[in-house]
Design brief:
alpha+beta, six-stranded antiparallel beta barrel
Length: about 140
Protein backbone atom coordinates (compact mmCIF):
# COMPACT_ATOMS: atom_id res chain seq x y z
CA UNK A 1 0.00 0.00 0.00
CA UNK A 2 1.47 3.35 -1.03
CA UNK A 3 1.25 6.29 1.34
CA UNK A 4 -0.18 9.60 0.25
CA UNK A 5 2.29 12.44 0.12
CA UNK A 6 1.53 15.82 1.63
CA UNK A 7 1.35 18.71 -0.79
CA UNK A 8 4.91 20.16 -1.01
CA UNK A 9 3.89 23.55 0.38
CA UNK A 10 2.24 21.92 3.39
CA UNK A 11 5.21 19.62 3.98
CA UNK A 12 7.44 22.70 4.21
CA UNK A 13 4.96 24.54 6.43
CA UNK A 14 4.69 21.62 8.88
CA UNK A 15 8.34 22.02 9.89
CA UNK A 16 7.49 25.11 11.97
CA UNK A 17 4.76 23.51 14.09
CA UNK A 18 6.86 20.35 14.40
CA UNK A 19 9.74 22.34 15.89
CA UNK A 20 7.54 24.54 18.13
CA UNK A 21 5.55 21.58 19.45
CA UNK A 22 8.83 19.76 20.06
CA UNK A 23 9.89 22.66 22.27
CA UNK A 24 6.57 22.39 24.15
CA UNK A 25 4.98 25.55 22.75
CA UNK A 26 1.15 25.29 22.90
CA UNK A 27 -0.43 25.55 19.45
CA UNK A 28 -4.15 25.11 20.05
CA UNK A 29 -5.35 21.68 18.97
CA UNK A 30 -2.02 20.73 17.36
CA UNK A 31 -0.11 17.88 18.97
CA UNK A 32 2.88 15.76 18.10
CA UNK A 33 2.07 12.21 17.10
CA UNK A 34 5.01 9.85 17.56
CA UNK A 35 4.68 6.45 15.89
CA UNK A 36 7.07 3.62 15.22
CA UNK A 37 8.06 3.34 11.55
CA UNK A 38 6.43 0.25 10.07
CA UNK A 39 9.53 -0.64 8.05
CA UNK A 40 12.44 0.71 10.10
CA UNK A 41 11.04 0.59 13.63
CA UNK A 42 12.47 4.07 14.20
CA UNK A 43 10.40 6.81 15.88
CA UNK A 44 8.51 9.04 13.45
CA UNK A 45 6.88 12.31 14.47
CA UNK A 46 4.20 14.37 12.74
CA UNK A 47 2.05 17.32 13.81
CA UNK A 48 -1.66 16.43 13.93
CA UNK A 49 -4.84 18.25 14.94
CA UNK A 50 -6.57 16.60 17.89
CA UNK A 51 -10.36 16.78 17.73
CA UNK A 52 -12.41 16.60 20.91
CA UNK A 53 -15.89 15.45 19.93
CA UNK A 54 -18.70 13.60 21.69
CA UNK A 55 -16.64 13.29 24.89
CA UNK A 56 -13.76 11.52 23.13
CA UNK A 57 -10.56 12.41 21.30
CA UNK A 58 -10.10 11.75 17.58
CA UNK A 59 -7.43 12.02 14.90
CA UNK A 60 -8.36 12.47 11.25
CA UNK A 61 -6.00 12.31 8.31
CA UNK A 62 -7.17 15.03 5.89
CA UNK A 63 -4.71 13.77 3.27
CA UNK A 64 -5.75 10.13 3.23
CA UNK A 65 -3.34 7.26 3.78
CA UNK A 66 -0.27 9.24 4.87
CA UNK A 67 2.84 7.78 6.46
CA UNK A 68 1.58 8.25 10.01
CA UNK A 69 -1.64 6.43 9.10
CA UNK A 70 0.32 3.45 7.77
CA UNK A 71 2.46 3.38 10.90
CA UNK A 72 -0.60 3.47 13.16
CA UNK A 73 -2.31 0.72 11.17
CA UNK A 74 0.80 -1.44 11.54
CA UNK A 75 1.14 -0.97 15.29
CA UNK A 76 -1.88 0.81 16.82
CA UNK A 77 0.29 2.31 19.54
CA UNK A 78 1.61 5.86 19.52
CA UNK A 79 2.44 8.80 21.77
CA UNK A 80 0.60 12.11 21.66
CA UNK A 81 1.45 15.49 23.21
CA UNK A 82 4.02 18.22 22.92
CA UNK A 83 7.55 18.79 24.12
CA UNK A 84 8.70 16.05 26.45
CA UNK A 85 5.16 15.38 27.61
CA UNK A 86 4.04 12.66 25.26
CA UNK A 87 1.48 10.23 26.62
CA UNK A 88 1.15 6.70 25.30
CA UNK A 89 -2.11 6.12 23.43
CA UNK A 90 -3.85 3.41 21.48
CA UNK A 91 -5.33 4.49 18.14
CA UNK A 92 -8.22 2.49 16.73
CA UNK A 93 -9.39 3.11 13.18
CA UNK A 94 -13.12 3.70 12.99
CA UNK A 95 -15.06 2.88 9.84
CA UNK A 96 -18.57 2.49 11.24
CA UNK A 97 -21.41 5.03 11.44
CA UNK A 98 -19.37 7.27 13.78
CA UNK A 99 -16.79 8.11 11.08
CA UNK A 100 -19.02 10.43 8.99
CA UNK A 101 -20.07 12.33 12.13
CA UNK A 102 -16.45 12.74 13.25
CA UNK A 103 -15.43 13.89 9.75
CA UNK A 104 -18.24 16.45 9.75
CA UNK A 105 -17.15 17.74 13.19
CA UNK A 106 -13.50 17.88 12.03
CA UNK A 107 -14.38 19.83 8.88
CA UNK A 108 -16.54 22.21 10.90
CA UNK A 109 -13.98 22.83 13.66
CA UNK A 110 -10.99 23.28 11.32
CA UNK A 111 -12.83 24.88 8.37
CA UNK A 112 -10.83 28.09 8.73
CA UNK A 113 -7.57 26.24 7.92
CA UNK A 114 -7.10 26.48 4.14
CA UNK A 115 -5.43 23.09 3.64
CA UNK A 116 -8.27 21.36 5.54
CA UNK A 117 -10.85 23.00 3.28
CA UNK A 118 -8.87 21.98 0.19
CA UNK A 119 -8.27 18.41 1.41
CA UNK A 120 -11.97 17.74 1.89
CA UNK A 121 -12.94 18.91 -1.60
CA UNK A 122 -11.09 16.03 -3.28
CA UNK A 123 -13.42 13.21 -2.25
CA UNK A 124 -10.43 11.17 -1.03
CA UNK A 125 -10.78 8.69 1.85
CA UNK A 126 -10.03 10.30 5.24
CA UNK A 127 -9.06 7.76 7.93
CA UNK A 128 -10.55 8.40 11.38
CA UNK A 129 -8.92 7.15 14.59
CA UNK A 130 -10.28 7.01 18.12
CA UNK A 131 -7.64 8.03 20.68
CA UNK A 132 -7.65 6.04 23.92
CA UNK A 133 -5.14 5.84 26.77
CA UNK A 134 -2.65 2.99 26.47
CA UNK A 135 -3.44 0.28 28.98
Amino acid sequence: MASAELPPKLARMSRGPLRLLGWGVPMGPLRLLRTRGRRTGLPRTAPVALLKYDGRQWLVSPFGDTHWVGNVRADGRAALGRGRRLRPVRLTEIDDDRAPRVLRAYRHKFRIVPFVRDAFTTGEHHPVFLVEPEK
